[in-house]
Amino acid sequence: MAIGDHFDEDCVVYDPVYSPTIIAGDLTFHNIITLIAGITTILAIISSCALALTHLFHYANPSEQKHIVRIVIVPAIYGLFNFFSVWRYELSNYLQPIPEAYEIFALVCLFLLFLNYVHPHAASRESYFAGLERRDRKGENKLHDFGSLRWFYAIWILVFQVLIGRIATFIASEVLAALYCDFNYETSKSRTAIQGVQTAETIIAMIAIIRMYMRLKLLLKKHHAMSKLVCFKLMVAIAVLQSLIFSALSSDGHLEGTDSISELDYSIGLQALLLCFEVFIFSLAFWWPFSVKEYSTSRPENAGRVRYNFFRAIFDVVNIWDVVSGLFFTFRALRNVRTPAQNMEVLGMPEEAGLKTVESEPLPPAYPLHPPQSYAAPARAGDDVV
User: Fold this and answer.
1) Domain that holds residue 326
2) pTM of the predicted structure, to 2 decimals
3) Which of 133, 174, 179, 282 is most open to solvent, judged by the fewest CB atoms within 10 Å of its CB?
4) Digits of tens for pLDDT over the chain (386 positions)?
5) Which parts of the chain span the membrane according to its record (predicted)?
6) Could you give the number of structural domains in the chain?
């Protein structure tokens, strides 16, 4: 049965859908790329899950490691859903938005991870940034005497807008897949427009995270934040660029089938196959920047840290209330974006308060409202919610 047969009579029917000609032994081109995608996906899942398990078995810093586990399984999720897209083209319109949405969730987790590196106590984070001297990206020129709270709000909004936008475009993609014919010209044009919006949102969020890194790199450097950012950014950039290219070529009718390779082998199969191979490479690359070594309780500097129970660690990772509360905080940030002087007044800080500089005092909070939390103690509810 052709793909279009289960839709209404106006749907375009593609026949054949898959590669029509045997090209090697008993295998068509579609059989070959499905086999390759399956192998690379299995390898990516093994690599990603093994790295995630190392953190779950050495789960001593929940506020950081929960984000790391969420990030390192991105290649496995991408590979799994793209394999099914290669295997069954008629499912691709439903499946491909899922790993893309999770990728954005992981991007937000990367931002929250960086914030935890800078100041782990969410309850006093606004006070910290209100007391952080505002300087340019190079850290050389002082901009004003009103702290960095307004800048913090702006960065937060620019990052979390991608999650809000992706929820909307994900729903739009799934509705489009459910209501309209697969693979026809009009649907392809709509998907290209949605992907254009998603790309713009992702670029804005990435720029915001880079701006934050450039401003606070002295605090983030020892955590290999740049290698984490580059590795994840490169994976996101390749996926976004590749999706745009294939979508544009497909919508303009440049991907025409041959006797050995069908049109959908080009527009869907090859794109998903490339992603399966690429995420396998990134699943290996993630082992260095997201290593568990710094959390190992066997290291002398980690003496006193207590590892969490494996199942408790899993529960902490899948509990996404920290991200959900971050969405609510976005609306609060939009409401509270004020002039620098107003920010100081709202937090009860005099304008002449002694502001801290990243260069002179990198780690302690500017206005410590709560004592540092011991890694050996269970995390407090207020500290884990961003």
Assistant:
1) 3-384
2) 0.80
3) 179
4) 333 333 444 555 454 456 566 777 788 888 899 999 999 999 999 999 999 999 999 998 899 999 999 999 999 999 999 999 999 888 888 888 899 899 999 999 999 999 999 998 888 898 898 888 776 666 565 666 567 888 899 999 999 999 999 999 988 888 877 776 665 555 667 777 888 888 899 999 999 999 999 888 888 988 889 999 999 989 888 887 887 787 777 666 666 666 677 778 887 888 899 999 999 999 999 999 999 988 877 777 666 777 889 999 999 999 999 999 999 999 988 887 765 455 544 444 444 333 444 443 333 333 333 333 332 333 434 343 33
5) 32-56, 68-89, 101-118, 151-172, 192-210, 230-249, 269-290, 310-331
6) 1
